[in-house]
């Protein structure tokens, strides 16, 4: 233990188990190994680099790693880690997220349950200092993670929202989709990046579970490891942003998986420009853009209950579900 850190649950009786706080960047290589091993065991092929870890931890919001993380070692080797954070939605509800990754060698020994109990305890302590109102714990679970699903169900979490990872397996026969009249697509200048980010935040205000983003989120946007505005497709109405698709290519992931994948992500249209085919036009142009960069497929993620019909749009241009996710909640209690 250091400072205010303490393990807030009953540790499982595992020989050689040590539970400790986060030590900083020196933990990143072991954390990466645990995350990759855990996701591989659960059918997720999404490699992360040490740069990805550094990017996340440079821009944490509502999370103090000194008190809000837990590392689990067995015989000196990291086998699991967890972190907590929270946010407040536009509608006023506060969500408190406990998550952890447990490598296969740490599973089926009570460690996941203990880490969840610890993380919930830490979040309850944080929530004491927040105003009264709706407060729930929230977890996101890959539907292939049967063990996690059983753990969350036993702990009282109930499904509330669903999501999907979607892939267009080839970039052939991209459909036609004209840009609405009066709009121009061009990449933003350096002095327009703030305007692009703010337009995206505005567009998502009425999405389920949307929450305002602070300055640290803007810094993360600028610092994104795969930041490439030349690949973005941003629609302008004069000097106003109407909509955008901020695509990127993760070349380290492609090298690790043997794929040629581009991500047509960060898709948004501001309210005055909806119902005119703009999202479809920008998505089609983005598929063409990643194909021109030598990619052979495209991917994105979506909330399937999206009130603006995003899931149906993506299906209509050739994307298919390859993985599903569930958001689960329970009262903070």
In short:
By secondary structure, this protein is of the alpha+beta class. The protein is built from ten helices and 13 strands.
Strand order of the largest sheet: 1-2-3-4-5-13-6-12-10
- Gap from first CA to last CA: 27 Å
What's the number of extended β-strand segments? 13
Q: How would the global form be characterised? A: globular
CATH homologous superfamily classification of the largest domain: Gcn5-related N-acetyltransferase (GNAT)
- Gyration radius from CA atoms, angstroms: 21 Å
Structural class determined from secondary elements: alpha+beta
Sheet of most strands: 9 strands, mixed
Could you explain the architecture of this structure?
The chain is α+β, with helices and mostly antiparallel strands and 333 residues long. The chain folds into 2 domains: 17-156, Gcn5-related N-acetyltransferase (GNAT) (Aminopeptidase, 3-Layer(aba) Sandwich), CATH 3.40.630.30; 166-324, Gcn5-related N-acetyltransferase (GNAT) (Aminopeptidase, 3-Layer(aba) Sandwich). It is built from 10 helices and 13 strands. It has helices at residues 28-41, 50-58, 65-68, 111-127, 146-154, 193-203, 215-223, 251-257, 278-292, 310-316; strands at residues 17-20, 69-74, 77-88, 94-102, 135-142, 158-168, 184-185, 233-237, 240-245, 261-263, 267-269, 297-303, 320-331. Strands 1-2-3-4-5-13-6-12-10 form a 9-stranded mixed β-sheet. A 4-stranded antiparallel β-sheet has the order 7-8-9-11. Strand 3 (77-88) and strand 4 (94-102) form a beta hairpin. The longest helix is centred in the middle third of the chain and has 17 residues, at 111-127. The radius of gyration is 21 Å and the shape is globular.
